Amino acid sequence: MLALTMVPTHAATTKATPTPTVKTTAKPTASAKATATKKAVVKKKPRKKVTVSPSPKPKWPPSGFKASGDVYAKIPTAKELVGTASNSKILTAQLAQKVDGVAICEKYSCGAVQVASLDGCTWWEVNAKLVGETSATDKTIKTFGSIRTLAGKTTSKQITTILLISQELLELRHVVTNISAICHKDPATEKVPSTTYKSATN
């Protein structure tokens, strides 16, 4: 288990002057023979051989991840989450869910965690708390509820992003914290994937 916080020229003219006319016998003029010019031969430079070296192995553990045994986890920034979603159909679908015509994480407070394991996991269990100020007038921090999210299988060193969705309105400015990720090796006995939110008032 791993616990994490979060841009005018003028031409000159001359008068013609009369000149005596002289008859001459035209002599044949030698016609100039066209001489062929040799085309310059351009020598091709030999191509340099390019040696392709293999891509370096991905750094492990990944930058920014915290470790607990063979389990690694990281709280992604909003920018990282958007970048990840653009390459993940699953995450994109989750974020596209709508409640009352509004994207789910624009209605409810959400969090996320990226996890990975050296040996891979059969399924993941992520638990978190939702905390915030008691009210607009009472700034005391309290726990409003808990989130339990189950995610599917990952292979060795595969990074997956798990979305944590509450049922508390986003406008209340709650924060998802105290996140813990558990890599399970045994078969799941519960529905995967799934998310359960439990209000602290229940």
Which properties best describe this structure?
4-stranded antiparallel beta sheet; mainly beta; 5-stranded antiparallel beta sheet; disordered N terminus; 11 strands; about 200 residues; 3 helices
Helix and strand element order: EEEHHEEHEEEEEE
Taken as a percent bin, the fraction of beta residues is 35-45%
End-to-end separation in angstroms reads 26 Å
Strand ordering within the main sheet: 1-10-7-8-11
Number of strands: 11
* Major sheet description: 5 strands, antiparallel
What does this entry look like structurally?
The two termini are 26 Å apart. It is elongated and about 85 Å long. The protein has helices at 78-85, 89-96, 104-107; strands at residues 2-4, 66-68, 71-74, 98-99, 102-103, 108-117, 123-133, 141-151, 160-169, 175-184, 194-199. The strands form three sheets. A five-stranded antiparallel beta sheet has the order 1-10-7-8-11, with no helix packed on it. A four-stranded antiparallel beta sheet has the order 2-3-6-9. A two-stranded antiparallel ribbon has the order 4-5. Strand 4 and strand 5 (102-103) form a beta hairpin. The protein is mainly β and 202 residues long.
Short description:
This protein has 202 residues and is mainly beta. It is 10% helix and 36% strand. The strands form three sheets. A five-stranded antiparallel β-sheet has the order 1-10-7-8-11, with no helix packed on it. The protein has a four-stranded antiparallel β-sheet with strand order 2-3-6-9. Strands 4-5 form a two-stranded antiparallel sheet.
